[in-house]
Fold each of these.
Amino acid sequence: MELKDKTIIITGASSGIGEATAHKLADNGANVVLMARSTDKLKELKSAIENNGGKALVASGDVTKKSDFDNAVKEAVSEFGKVDGLINNAGLMPLSFIEKLKTDEWEQMVDVNIKGVLNGVAAVLPELKKNKGGHIINISSMAAHRYFPGGAVYCATKSAVKMFSEGLRQELAPEYGINVTSIEPGAVETSLTDTITDEDIKDKMKEMMEMTTLKAEDIANAIYYSLTQPARVNINDVYIVPSEQK
Ligand code: NJP
């Protein structure tokens, strides 16, 4: 996809990978639609993008609410005329050992990491079909490849995203020209670990993050690479980890 004047919705755009991706895509000519719950942060990001000569729209919303996604698509179409892509990036990682039974956190992960992705696809698909093409990128994880301590539920949600992406690709790419990519990062320096409440895991995470981790920009580059291939090329999976991560 040639990014110039293409409209891409990015969830979880208020920080980390989503924010870096918004800059990368806007710097390369895309109209970016910024979705997350922190409206103030999205407004700041929009200003920063516009100061660099880019185009951005704030569409605040919660990915667990299908109606918020529907509104984001409506606003995007009203501002930019159409929608060409979706980066399903919003996610949570409150790791904990199963025996702690932090069931509210399990549910939050299922709601945001899995149902949020499904809501996004349901909201943009009619638009992409109308345009006879597009691209959906889902942010999965290294956690879809292997378990790590305290990650049973998180790994399960990210495995679901990876397999859902493959099903989407098979159903959408050949018939509708809608390419689908699953991005599977290892450790990236963002605020993702802030939601961890299990003290036993917090210490383990500190040790783990002592290595040289990836930067959010590294993942933004992988997203940019996947999006900008010729339409005949579907990058299925990008498994991208820090060189120092075992
Ligand atoms: O984390 P962070 P990342 N509705 O905490 C948003 C995956 N990943 O950039 O709503 C809408 O900086 C939240 O916004 P807000 C990870 O699983 C990461 O690292 O304003 N948005 C914020 O913008 C996730 O899928 C690593 O609070 C909601 C964003 O999500 C993706 O990368 C490794 C929301 C989180 O930004 C981005 O995470 C890996 C909701 N209900 C996979 N709930 C890593 N960092 O090491 C949250 O394998 N958000």
Note: The mean pLDDT is 97.
Amino acid sequence: MRIFLIGYMGCGKSTLGRRLAADMGIQFIDMDSYIEERNYKTVPQIFAEEGEAEFRKKERKALEELTEFTDVVIATGGGAPCFFDNMELMNQSGVTVFLNIDPTILAGRLLKSKTERPLIKGKSREELIAFIHESLQKRSPFYEKAALQITKPDVETDTVIEQLKQIM
Ligand code: S3P
């Protein structure tokens, strides 16, 4: 079993991922941490020193490696589904779950978050909300290719597990 959690920054992929993995008794992997370990650099360092295009190549390579793992829940980076044919790769090798969260909630969470995210660094609340709307327009068509969609990951862990069992 291989589950990919996808969705915008701040949608709760890691939180749900940890819970799902614990409930199902399988491994949890955070893709950004996986990239950082493999490259001996943090994500912000990769963006700053090598640029976004290089980060996307590293992200693709990590994804290819992760499709070899079994019995795992993978929290992907927010942009991962939207580059190369990453979404097709994930759909071929596992079950994709899109955490579809309202942009205003995302903005509130991202403003409070301590995780450094190069794409939104230094943005005010208003700038962030505008940026989220704009990037979601481009990203949603990719996210919507997911096999499953949930809008309340905080209360839907059991529902997700039930849905996963039905399609496995
Ligand atoms: C990104 C999301 C981040 C990380 C990088 C780029 C994006 O992951 O991969 O900063 O393009 O949306 P999270 O979704 O875990 O914040």
Note: The radius of gyration is 15 Å.
Amino acid sequence: MIRKLTELDLQDKTVFLRVDFNVPIKDGQVGEPHRIDSALPTMQYILARAKKLIVASHLGRPDGKVVEKYSLAPVQRHLQSALKLPVAMASDCVGPAVEDLLRATSSKVVLLENLRFHAEEETNQEDFCRALASLAEVYVDDAFGAAHRAHASIAGMAKFFAHKGAGLLLQKELDYLGPLLANPARPFVTILGGAKVSDKIGVIRNLLPKISSLLIGGGMAYTFLKAKGIDIGKSLLEADKVGLAGEIMAQAQQLGVKLLLPVDHIAADSDKKNPRTFDDAIPADRTGLDIGPKTAQLFADEIKQAKLILWNGPVGLFEVPPYDQGSRLLAQTLADHHPAVTGIIAGGDTVAAVSAAGVSAHIAHLSTGGGATLEFLEGKILPGIKALDD
Ligand code: AMP
């Protein structure tokens, strides 16, 4: 059983909070604070009850060494103004530097320096786990984006705590992603797109028995179309996955899952110019870069009659207009049917496509995990979640 933050006794306790503050830093400032700001409710909840809040995160890949540009100092400055409270910054994440600061400071919040300045974080070394755990009485994990990593602050240190639980962000991920695997509302429609079939095979295998319809768009659709003998021109193709695409289509049929592939395409010439719409086959010298209007409508109709939608992977090269049209229409349709249709968006690119369409606020859940979300949907037990389970 994983305890919720609201079920933990935090009164006058010192709480260790693992967050994902792996934010872009530009000229010594936080470039994009979304990850920090989304953890504020968890921090505020703890601060209203606990004696002290210790906040820990990684930033970048310093590979076990102190690398100045990966210091969390810019995060401390942002956090201070976001919380409107003094935030003390420790020069390390374990040892006397932290212990002395905890004794001396009157700040209620202490931010530890980058966990990955110690190689023992990523190797999940036992003494390092114990040293981190010795700082606090309660452990709260709110770093879903890192939950697939068996690192000390994610997986290793939790066993030293009798009192531990999921922060509000992590809890929201579990509340939305958990039922997709356990007991999904139906019709349950999954939309898959993006560049590669190979990245999504695990998800397809795990979800196929649970879903009503599978809509495939984006670059990965061409490998499926190839398997059906349709000409795809110069579109993305994973030649070694054509057989597998055929198997997935056969399995979907056996399971009674409706599988929809694009019926028309926006295809460009060699430098992504001169987009034109083609039904079925794509000419030999052209590249499919978005689903066509008939496909977008077909997919939108599926969205309208669904109860639950999982969408991972944009259905076109959405970063380059006009190849964002298909993804935009799907995002808009999801937003228009919210909350009758529960929309769950997984993966950084898909979240970006939905944000670019300006409808993020009208979608039930934008998952914060990239790799973590995919591994969760593949049915893998994530080390960070297992560690919280009593
Ligand atoms: P993935 O990480 O596999 O979800 O892939 C996401 C990327 O796939 C995004 O950058 C999209 O622009 C890209 N993408 C989607 N459809 C296509 C396409 N038809 N051709 C090339 N790239 C695409």
Note: The chain has a mean pLDDT of 96.
